[in-house]
Structure formats: C-alpha cells, structure tokens
Amino acid sequence: MHTLVVAEKPSVGRDIARVLGAGTKGDNCLTGNGYVVSWAVGHLVTLKEPDEIDPRYKHWRKEDLPIIPEKMETKVISKTKGQFSVLKKLMNDADVSEIVCATDSGREGELIFRYIYDQAKCKKPVKRLWISSMTEEAIRSGFAALRPSQDYDNLYKSARCRADADWLIGMNATRAFTIRYNVILSIGRVQTPTLSMLVKRRREIDAFVPTAYFTVRADFGDYEGIYIDANGEKQIPEKAQAETIAGAVKGKPAEVTEVVKENKSERPPLLYDLTTLQREANSRFGYSAKKTLQIAQDLYEKHKLLTYPRTDSRFLSHDMQGKVRETLSKYDGNLKEIGEKAVGYGITLNKRVFDDAKLTDHHAIIPTGKPASKASLTTDERNVYEMVATRLAAVFYPNYEYESTRVTTRCEGYSFQSQGKHVTQPGWRELTPAQTKKGKKGSRDAADGEGELPQLSRGDTRTCKAASVKEEATKPPKEHNDASLLAEMEHAGRRIEDENLREQMKDCGLGTPATRAAIIERLIEVGYVKREKKNLVATEKGCKLIDAVPVEMASPEITGQWEKILSEISKGADKESDFRTGIVRMTEKLVGDAAAAPDVGFTPESYKKGGRAQKKPVTLGIKCPLCGKGEVAENRAAFYCTRFREGCKYTVWKNCLQRIGGPEISEKLIRLCLTNSAVKGSTGTIYTSSTGVLSFVPGNP
Fold first, then answer.
1. Where are the domains of the chain?
2. Architecture category of domain 162-206+480-595 in CATH
3. Residue 406 needs a FRET pair 20 to 30 A away by CA distance; which of 202, 213, 308, 694 works?
C-alpha cells in the first residue's frame, strides 16, 4: 500500500519526493519508498460559470438576476484537465491507502486540495503537511508531525466562504452594472473598495489648488536657520514681508537665545511579513507587489533560501531561538559580518521578535539558513533575499540612538530655527546607510534637522552673513504607488469614520497578503487603473465606476467586516451561516442598486459574453437610421450608433422584444429590419420605423 502526497506545484512535489526517497518517474508523479508524490498546477478545480449551472444564464438578462445557486457547484478547469485526471486516478487507486495534503499551508492552498479531493469523489483518510520552509530539514520535520485533515476544516470553511462570496458578488454585480450601463464593468468584493482608494486620491489631487508662500533662510556662518513666527510657523504668505525680514537681518548681529537638546532612541524594525516586504521592495527598488511576491516565492520554492512568504505575521515562535542563532551563524559572503555581529549582540527572547501570541498560520519571513553566496540568483532575487537576511540580523542589533538639538537664533527681533542631529549609537541603522544621512557642519541639512550643528550655547553670537527668500507652494497629496496602496489595503479598517467600529476593525484589511498583489494587477487589467512610472493612477473609467456603484460597495467597511469574519471562521467561530446570509443579502441589494443606479457617462465598448472587451467597435456597414451620419455598431447587449459621443441616441437592445414574445435581435435580424419596414417570422412580425425603432406584433404570419 502507498501514501499519496499531493503538492500544489510540480517543483514542490519534486522537492518532497526527493526527501521521501520517491525517485521513480511515473505518469506526472514520482514513486518509491511507500510514497506516490504528485501535484496540482495551482487550481485544477473551480466554481462553475452561471451558464454551466443553467444554460439560460448564457445571455446576460436583468430579469435573471440575482443568480444565487442552491449549491455552489465546481468543475474541472479544462486547461489542466489532464493533471486532474492523474490525481483522480491516484486518489481512487486501490493501492493508495491514505493521502497527504501538501499544498501551500494557507487558506488558498487548503481550498485547492479540498476542491480536487471532492471533485474526485475520494473518501480516503487525509493528513495535512504544514510547513513554512522547503528545506530538507523542514520537510522531514513536517512529515514527522502530520495532523489529521479535520484539524483544518475551519480553514477550509473560511476559504470556501471567501470563494463563494467573491463569486456571488462578482458575477451578479458585474452582470447587473454591465447591463445597466451597456459597458463591461468588472466589480469585486475586494477590488472595488481598493479602486475607491485610488479614485479618492486622484480626485484629491485634481481638486487641489496650490497656495504660494515664502520662506527666509539666514546664513550664520557655520550653521543656517529658517525664519519662524511667534507660532513657530515657517510659511510667510506675502513676498514683500519675506523680503523685509531678509533685508532687515542681512549683515546684522545675531544671538543664540535657546538651545534644546533631547536624547532619542529608535528600536529595530519588526521582521517582514509579505505586505511589508512588498512595500519596502517597492520603495527601494521600484518592484511591483506582484513582482516581489514572485521573487519571494521563487526564493522559497526554487532556491530554498526563504521561509513561506505568504504570511501576515511579523513574529517568530519562542522555540525558534536556536534555529535563528544557527541561521545567522551560517550567513556567508557579504552577509557574514552582520550575521556574526547579530549573534554577538545576543539572540535573546525579545518579545519584538519571539511572540507566540502574535503568530498566525505562519511566522515572519526569514532566511532558512541555506548558504546563499554561491546560489545562482538574479539581481532582483539577491536584492530581496538580502533585504530579508539583513532584517533578521537587524532585529538583534542595538537601538539607533542620537541627540536631537533645536536652536533658536534672534536677529533684529526675528527668530530663526535650526535643528540638528548627532548620532551617538548607529545601532541597527548601520545596516541601512541610506537612511542615516550625515550632514556636514554648516550645511543646509543641519538647518533642516538632518545633519550636525556646531556646539552652541545660549548667549553665543554670530553675524547674519546672508539671507535669502525662497518662493514655494503647498503640494498636493502624492499619487499612490504599490507601497502606499498596500499600506492602505492592509490598514483599511483604520480609515473607517465610526470610532467604535474603527477600533474593532483596526487590524482588518482588504484582501490578504497573498491576494493583494493580484487585486492591484486585476484593476490594471480591466482598465480601472494605469501605471504611470511607479505610480498607480485611477483612470476615467475607474472613477466613473465608483460614481456608479453604491457607497457601501466602494467602502472598505463592509469588506473589512467580512475579512474579519472570515478570519474568525478559520479560527473556529460558528459564523459561516451568518456570513453566507449577509453575502446573499448584499448580492440582492446590489442587483437592485444597479437597476436604479445614476446616469454615468461611460464610453460604450463592444464586448463579448464573459466580459472580454474588443478593441474596436464591430460595425455593420449600415448608416444609422436616426442621424444618418454614423454607422450601426454592435456590442454584447445592443446595437448602437458610432456617433454616440456626438449625441446620437440610436440604441436597439438585443432583448428588447423578448419580454413580449419576440425573438432576440441578432446581427442578421437587425440587418433585415434596417433594410425592410417589416420582417415576418415564426412567432410574429417585426416593424421598423423610419428612425430605427422596433415593434413586434405576435401571431402567425
């Protein structure tokens, strides 16, 4: 008898097979030592499309909405049907006595396996492999601690609820609003609130009106100061006032009237979870969230250099103390020195690093301890690996400590402020030199608090050698990039206006670390967002969608509440029924909202069933009967005039006659109608007016 091991990807399956001693090649599997190891290729099974549940849903009709199946049925994905057949055969093979689920250790990995298992109608016992690293040691330890699949039933319930909710909201809202506006509109439970953040930022920028102001900077020889008024304000509204101040102090004696020094300390940052890694990789290297996730996944699966990357935890368990010390001791190449220093500082059970209470399904992303200097890594892979490796060392370095100095200098009755910083202990900051700018004495950096000031005491005197006026302007908010949008998504609950609800949901976000990159890419794919260099900018279509959908659909509040409930379900809370009831109610409300949605001027598009837009309108080569200038064109739901932008209102909906017993209007039929005043068929006669309006009289011709 054999044990069947099902991995999520072929590369992972081969790694597991090597550790288990299953080296004999079979039909998309590896066998040996009592094991058969095979794999999925990501999702092999998914939820059925509406028209696969009932053929009548092939046509997008308002009267068929909402579509709420009694049971959410699954299907085998045709593209990977062959691999599903392999797994189905193995799962039901008489020589296989039990199965090990070795898909990724998370909500989506659990769903992938359970869908396959159920679709294959398998009834054999299942155990779960739950690991955070693909090293040989981790795989062996994982197989030595397999747990019954039932221990993860709550995780599966959460995953299934998420999938069903996304289907119900996405399928129904997309159809309802597409029918309402005659343009394909992709709407999602998570993607639409995410889009609203980008739309809000674009509108803040568009509405921003810059205000000019002036500053006066005085040069006291070995340091500089910026003019401040009695309230500490640096901005001067009028140029004449600024020039008066500059003229008054130039060449005049000055005196230091106040010196305030304060010792400050910054603790090392926390370890990386996926979202923080994506944000910092975007800020440092310009990598998109999607790219960083792929790099981290390759470092986990292919190179075995990082632990499981799709984590939302920034902590380690206390029993990993020895493993961390060993990992840092194995740093090689240009990382060897910082690893040795970290060990020298002491790998103590610091609660900012080791905290079992703050662990989720996986611990923070850290190196596995495998030597990296000779690994065949791309530049991008090495950048991300060294970020993670450096962070693990940094958390054990001393605090970054410095002395902050604020100096006030008076000249001719005017006050000038200077701020400086003197580093007393570089600590963990020595690992991030770009963040520890050291200004030279007398530099502009010193006046702005980024460099060192000379030793000054109250009563010291100087001469104002020069004074300059600079015109500046208030600046609009910055466009979002991957880093800032990920932060908004992660902390969406904190943006809620209701104080009580905000406190309850402060740690709830939009999506999960594993899905946020895909959500951003989806918004770009459907034309709601575009990349402008490193920025993510809402398009006109994206802005109009937010105008069209109800407020609650665009708000992170409801989605954040759902994510909170999904998390609670995965931890055993009995909320599955309530969640599903809420989703159905929301679906029904969205369909009603679509019918009564406001007029929003979307640019018509030609599209096919399933929402795939065509690049150009499909024209029929027939003049518009209403305006006589444009041509009749076709999209998914109607025939219309190509001069719609110029105001022509000619539109014939394809289902306009079906409610009174007539046929659906096809291309062939509309051609006949536009060339003949009357067209007879088996169910009655269609009459066409001189302006192209259709009417139908039922009855035999």
1. 2-145, 162-206+480-595, 212-267+399-473, 277-394, 618-698
2. Orthogonal Bundle (1.10)
3. 213
In the block, which residue shows the tokens 């699949």? 149
Question: Which distant-in-sequence residues (6+ apart) come within 8 Å of 114 by Cβ?
Answer: 156, 159, 160
CATH number of 277-394: 1.10.290.10
Q: Which two tokens stand for residue 10?
A: 């072929």
The mean per-residue pLDDT over the stretch 497-512 comes to: 62
Of 213, 227, 308, 331, which one is the catalytic site residue? 308
CATH code of the domain made up of 212-267+399-473: 2.70.20.10
Q: What is the pTM of this model?
A: 0.77
CATH code linked to domain 2-145 = 3.40.50.140
Contact 281, 387 (CB under 8 A): yes
pLDDT digits (tens, 9 = 90+) for 214-263: 999 999 999 999 999 999 999 999 999 999 999 999 999 999 999 999 99
CA distance 303 to 544: 45
The confidence score (pLDDT) of residue 438 equals 38
- Quote the DSSP letter at residue 216: E
Half-sphere exposure of 38 (CA within 13 A, CB side): 23
The rounded distance, in Å, linking the Cα atoms of 240 and 236 is: 9
Can 156 be counted among the known catalytic residues?
no
